[in-house]
Each structure stands twice: as C-alpha cells, then as structure tokens.
Design a protein that fits this description.
By secondary structure, the chain is of the alpha+beta class. Helices cover 29% and strands 24% of the residues. It is built from three helices and six strands, in the order αββαββαββ. Helix 2 packs antiparallel against helix 3. The longest helix is centred in the first third of the chain and has 24 residues. The protein starts with a helix and ends with a strand. The relative contact order is 0.12.
C-alpha cells in the first residue's frame, strides 16, 4: 500500500509540474531581469517636396534637318535634379516625328556647380554620326539646358576627358557658354 501511495503522490507531482509548465509557456518573461529596449517605431522620413516645371526638350526630325521642340513636365527637388531630369528626357524619343540623338549615348555623371553643368558621357559606336548629326547632338543639349536661367555653361566630357571634337566633325568649346 505504501508503494501505491508513493506512485500516486509521484503522479500528482508530475501532473502538477506539467500543468504549471504549460501555463508559463504562453506568458512573457517580464521579471527575469532582462531589460529589453522598447522598440521605437521608425520615424518616417520627410517626403521631399517635388517641384514641377514645364520645359522644352529639343530633339531632331527623322531626316536630321531641324530641331523639334517637345514640351514636357519635369519633376525635381533641386536645380541639379532638374538638369538630370531634362537630360533623361533628352534621351527619350517622342514618336515618329522626333528623334533623340542622345538615346544611345550613355550618361555617366551629371553635376551642377555655380552655373556650370559638367556632363560626363560614354559615346558608343552606334551613337557616332556624321557632321549634321554631331551638330544636332550638341545643339539639342545646349538648347535644352540653356533654357534654365541658372545654367550658365556646359562642360561636356567623354569618359572623363576633355576632347576637341565629339565625333570628329564639330569642334567643342570647353566649357560651352550661354550666349
């Protein structure tokens, strides 16, 4: 009989321990001395205020006979962003009647400092044109960027270097100044 009472007592102890263990499992341990830092919700970054400016992007006609004006709306935060947005638009075709000679040209960097836009490009073989095309590449860039009052000059670099001519036909000024 002693054996039976001992087994019964042992069963009650095990059952009690199991019940107590199950009850603790779902509750957070708040009194173990660990001080967890309260999770701070991230402060949302202030949304930049984008300005919108109507501008004209200058492209060429399909026969490379004249420039074609393409009105666009540019979104920007700073004047530097406005220049970058204009150059990005300069690289887009506007349909059948307007071609972008800047589309195949890789723009590496665009910087604006004290009215000088420094534009570093890479000129792949498919972007190389004859004399009229080269003239229009330079003219469309100048017309597009010089419409902004804050742009006073443009320094056009190819792979980081000043070059005498972009494609071998038209001499480049360093920098090209607003007239």
């Amino acid at each position: 009989m002693k054996n039976f009472k001992a087994r019964g007592l042992l069963a009650v102890i095990i059952l009690s321990a199991a019940i107590v263990g199950c009850g603790v499992q779902g509750k957070p341990d708040s009194n173990l001395g660990s001080t967890a830092a309260p999770t701070a919700s991230p402060t949302p970054e202030p949304t930049p205020v984008l300005n919108e400016k109507e501008a004209i992007i200058y492209l060429t006609d399909a026969e490379l006979l004249e420039t074609v004006e393409q009105p666009v709306k540019l979104n920007y935060e700073t004047e530097s962003d406005l220049v970058k947005a204009a150059i990005a638009e300069l690289q887009k075709d506007a349909g059948e009647n307007a071609l972008s000679l800047w589309k195949p040209i890789e723009v590496k960097t665009v910087e604006l400092a004290d009215g000088l836009v420094t534009l570093d490009i890479h000129l792949p073989d498919e972007a190389r044109l004859g004399a009229p095309g080269e003239m229009f590449v330079i003219e469309t860039l100048k017309k597009t960027l010089f419409q902004f009052d804050f742009v006073k000059s443009i320094e056009l670099l190819v792979d980081g270097a000043e070059i005498e001519t972009l494609m071998g036909h038209v001499e480049l000024e360093h920098p090209m100044n607003k007239e």
